[in-house]
Amino acid sequence: MIRKIVFGALVLLLFSVGGWLGYSQYGQSRFAPSASFQLVDGRRLTLAELRGQPVLITFWATSCRSCVEKIPALIELYRTLSPRGLEIIAVAMAYDPPNRVMMLRQQLRIPYPIALDLDGSRARLFDDVSLTPTTVLIDPEGRIVAYRLGELDIAALRKQLEPMLTAATG
Hints:
Glutaredoxin
């Protein structure tokens, strides 16, 4: 019983630390896996073709309340920073019904690419993601520089993204 309480307290502490945490699971950044994403609009997108720009991958589900609540902030981030090179890829978890993903995409007018991970293979590539939201930030060189489980701190994320972005061209 005490072990469960201590374990629960540790988990709660990890989640309550908050903010945008650097990718520390491996002690340092590492290169992102070669990944391709089947998008809901029929296109295929690969990380290789996005080399040279920062990529934010967010694993989410329509049943994840905090995921859905963050979508407007991600839309704003995308609209503001995509002209300077940011790409966002939202990966719907394998258990998420595609029709619900499509309905929410249309309802919220999500402008960034959404991928369906029907077989869970994309989640496995990124350290067996099983909880949402999980967010991965990849720098322009293709290294994972942040890996975040839990709610996203958009202001801290913007600060981390700023040096990776190109100057807006008019």
